[in-house]
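Lecture 7 notes: from sequence to structure.

We start with a single chain of 186 residues. Read the sequence below before looking at the structure.
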Amino acid sequence: MLLDRYESNQGFYNVNFKEAAGGGLYAYRGDLVVVDGEIADAQGRRKPPVAGLLGGVLLADADRIKLLAGSLDDLALIQPLLEKYQADFAPDMKAVLYVVNISKPMVTEAGGVKVVLIPMTDGMVWNELMDELALEKSDFKGQGSAEKVVTVFGAFADYAPKYEVVSLEEAMGRVNQAKRASRGPV
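Now the structure, written as tokens:
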């Protein structure tokens, strides 16, 4: 199974959950490695990733990613993300990436699929995704973690973003110097 392969290849970190979602689907929430850390020891374990897709939300069947959402610190990380995972994209995959260093939302094509790019310097991917898809807490009543990801995927049937459509090259030209908001101890 695809998500098991990612897990065994040390592609997940800060895992919230990875579990079966029914109907041959599997859900994951947590961070996804985009740029691997250096090999740390003789057993092949790695240092923390250099870059990742933070707050990742994945839904996959046995061999294709159906839903990909998460946050990137820099739009340039879309290239290593594609290099690492594009071969596993379903042709009709739904993708929403929250990007720190863009100023306004847009839609582009990357890896053969439509990707919605939304600026976000502060916030949680799951909460922002719920707002973007107009989902309410009541939509998830009585559902387990994996079922909630399936509900999110289902919400894409009615989702039609009204953002400007641009090429990936043009989107890359629209980056700014924004940095992720960080919080210290409370």
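The mean pLDDT is 93. Keep this in mind for problem set 3.
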